[in-house]
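I hope you will forgive my troubling you with a question about protein structure. I am sending you one protein, given as its amino acid sequence and as whole-number tokens for its backbone shapes. Thank you for your consideration; the sequence and its tokens are set out here:
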Amino acid sequence: MSILGLPFVSQAGVSPLPPDLAFLLDHGVDPAALAKAADRARAWGTDGASALLASGTVTEEAYYRALAAELGTPFLAGAIPLGPGARYPESVVAGVAPLLPGAPAAFVLAPRGAAIAEVLGGRSPMGRMPALTTPRALREAVFSANPAGIAAAAADSLQVHRPDWALKARPMGPTLAIAGLIAGLAVVAMVELPPTLVVGLWTAVQLVLLAMVTLRVAAVSVEAEGVAADACLADADLPVYTVFVALHREAAVVPRLTAALSAFDYPAAKLDIKFVIEAHDAETAAALAAAALPPGAEIVVVPPGLPRTKPRALNCALPLARGTCLVVYDAEDVPDPGQLRAAAALFARSDPRTACLQGRLVIDNQRDGPLPKCFALEYAALFDVLIPALAAWNVPIPLGGTSTHFRTHILRAVHGWDAWNVTEDADLGLRLARAGYRVGDLPSSTFEEAPARPGAWLHQRARWMKGFIQTSFTHGRQPRETFRQLGAFGTLAAIALVPGTVVCALAYPFLMGHAAYRFVFAGVEPVAGFWSNLPTGTAVTVFVSGLLAMLLPAALGCVRRGWWDLLPYVPLMPAYFLLVSAGAWLGLVELVLAPDRWNKTEHGLSRSSRSGALHRT
């Protein structure tokens, strides 16, 4: 190993090149580029190889070919003949796997980080020098060796390890049959039961609805916090951050997505970006191959299998995450460039039981029509008003599915996502709460594109509502245990936010229509006696509080965003929620006919962008 530790004049003064850079002097790499990489490595608190590869000066294959030449060992490119001892994810994580007899060596090695300096120092993990390859080539070889096993692990890991948390632990058919039987008996009972008892039951239902809308109205009183300017960490103190983006038929938004991820204000050597795509999605794969990917980004191809859902794809990539923190984005997202820094700083000063931070999602194509405008109001109410309040109250939060930041070890401890739940985000939020963790609010924006056509909007909302029902069944199978884990207030919040959302959406046109008819046409006349007036009184209260729950958070969200031009559209929210109700009924039908189907939302169709983010290229 020649000239290891040779001094070079860098921006930091005269200092030696680290071993994982110094050997490249004998292999034609520009000394100035090596000195610059060494400076960055010191400033970022990383190894030299990561800093060099993040700069793009040397490709991954060129670096490892030079490393193999320096060590006098074979470099393996193309198909790698792995032996039967190769394991997923162990072989990928360790960076070493056995080879078949007759191969150039007994093992193949793909070291990262500090392991490269150890190999250069003559310390091989196998006792003798194996063949070398790139980490990417080793990962692809391990995936090719056992695609069925990897697909099965991604689909069923939660069910295997924690069946009490998994949707598929029990068949859905009997549950739906029992629920239908109970609903049928309730209808018969309302016809046959004495009127006094029917009135009592109806009043109880109204009181439950009142408790649900009270949660949304009360959220208006909670002040939303911002990011402290002096809270950011120095580059050397920042953790390695994994970024997951699951893509399916998203070729149209790949240029915008890669530009957005390349704009992160974060040390490039500490970014672990993974684009996760399905094996059959050749169009997206071609778009990624043609795009200028951020340095160090990888394309993880999910082996074929069922269900074909986003959570299964994320589970496939989760064992490969190298970051202490991990964030999930959707393909159409444009996050704030400082979001990872803000999340890392907030994690650093938060309680260790804070497992997740939910970023604030913002609908950006509001000018595409009335539907995106109302969608923007709904998101402003949810992410700028309700979720900050829920985080302050420390109650369960159904996650947003994107711009969700995790402590990676906790995400693995709860076994990732439920691959069979089509709103894996809501399920994971409740599962984290049941496991004793909390979700915090991250006051950093991520811009999204909303469907502008009613058909696409309804299909997306039907999937969400279907998944909320699935989540309700999953965590309602053991009500006593769930109540014990969440507590009284947490249980009430979970009921209000997940099954309550569906129930309210299903009943909304009937309850609000009946109340509006009474107010406008039939009138509300008091009668003698408290109990006789109670149903009418609760109906009036639910009607008024329901309107406030729709209007106040949306209006406050507009004020907090400075969207004064959207305030006139707030009165449209009661009409917008009729569409939400239609989505809930469609989701109920889909739950019976196609419980695992993932309704894909097309992106890259926006005609406007309030911030300019959606038109960034």
